[in-house]
UniProtKB/TrEMBL annotation, chains A, B:
Keyword annotations of the record: Isomerase
Gene that this sequence comes from: nsaD
Entry's family note: Belongs to the GST superfamily. NadH family.
Protein name, UniProt field: 2-hydroxychromene-2-carboxylate isomerase
InterPro entries cross-referenced by the UniProt entry: DSBA-like_thioredoxin_dom (IPR001853), GST_Kappa/NadH (IPR051924), HCCAis_GSTk (IPR014440), NahD-like (IPR044087), Thioredoxin-like_sf (IPR036249)
Record's keyword annotation contains Isomerase: yes
PANTHER family, alphabetized: GLUTATHIONE S-TRANSFERASE KAPPA, GLUTATHIONE S-TRANSFERASE KAPPA 1
The keyword Secreted appears for this protein: no
Length: 207, 207
């Protein structure tokens, strides 16, 4: 029997996507669930609902508490002390194009985690193509070549199509988790429940 | 030594406040924490950031998934099947005025839970003063008399002052939890962590 599956939709500029990216492998292994990593850009989704920046910038009280909350969560999970990207949110276009290019490659997960760690644990920029190339080089990949391939029209189209898929499947934030039967879970706080659902464990008598 | 304390700020129209209200007593007892129940209106807080309704109405994808999420959470907590108030959000002014009037009364907690249950488990309106009076009567209290006292200018002022306190202490949503040392936790998902913090248990090495 094939393993149950869960899609993990993430945005490189998103603090809570970072928390999920660093946790999902061990939790999925324990739950017996195969994860499909789905990079996408949340910016167009926000723009479609009239937001010109991160809600954490648009609503300052919410933003202040988000940073404190992520700091607490990182400590609770045993992650390194949080570093706050400057500016926030980071422009994630280059990194996301590369991740889309690597959607079916074995380096997608290590690349994804390296980008998140650079941004939220090492205090490094991930915005410039050169920063993304350096992360790829650090994984013994060919940074310049992959960046060039990621900029090809066909790959840009794949990224746009992923964004359309996100909206059409009801995503409105990152991270989000989607099961094969279309159940949508939003936010790092729902990672465990999403994995349980994918594995066939419904809360109460829900279907 | 006095018990550690936690303030629970809640809004009667808020789905996640409902989930916390039904859970906090048992969890606080287990954690050895005394809870101060703080009713307030979130509407003015939302209005101050430019929202004219609930974000769950303003952003339809978010709203759709919220209802499903609360349904899942209610099932996971063993609460009754969720009923969706119509309209949503319910006008909570009358109920909140009564709760403010009862801030130091032994009936505050049973009244609060009865209002939430009426709205989210029994599918009843809580908007009209007569609905609030019926809930009070059901608790063997004098509904008409309490509603009249709740409408007095001094009590309306107390409600406004509570709203000012909420904003000045950084609240931007409901439910929220505040510790004596000023640590703010937002959302039903943080109830357990807020109680742990109040009891002196910090995640990792945080202060």
């Amino acid at each position: 029997m094939p393993r149950p599956r869960l899609e993990f939709w993430y945005e490189f500029a998103s603090t809570y996507s970072y928390l999920s990216a660093m946790r999902i492998e061990a939790l999925a292994e324990a739950a017996g669930v195969a994860v499909r990593w789905r990079p996408f850009l949340i910016g167009p989704v926000f723009a479609a609902q009239g937001w010109t920046s991160s809600p954490f910038n648009l609503f300052p009280a919410k933003g202040r508490n988000m940073w404190r909350d992520v700091e607490r969560q990182a400590a609770a999970y045993g992650l390194p002390p949080l570093t706050q990207p400057d500016p926030f949110p980071q422009n994630s276009l280059s990194a996301t194009r590369v991740a889309i290019l690597g959607a079916d490659e074995p380096w997608l997960v290590p690349f994804t985690k390296a980008v998140f760690s650079a941004s939220f644990a090492q205090g490094r920029s991930i915005a410039e193509p050169s920063a993304v190339a350096a992360i790829l080089d650090g994984l013994d990949l060919d940074g310049p070549q992959l960046l060039k391939a990621a900029s090809a029209e066909a790959n840009k189209t794949r990224l746009r199509v992923a964004g359309e898929e996100a909206r059409s499947r009801g995503l409105y934030g990152a991270p989000s988790f989607l099961t094969d039967d279309g159940e949508l879970f939003w936010g790092n706080d729902r990672l465990e429940q999403a994995l349980s659902w994918a594995a066939g464990d419904r809360p109460g008598s829900l279907r």
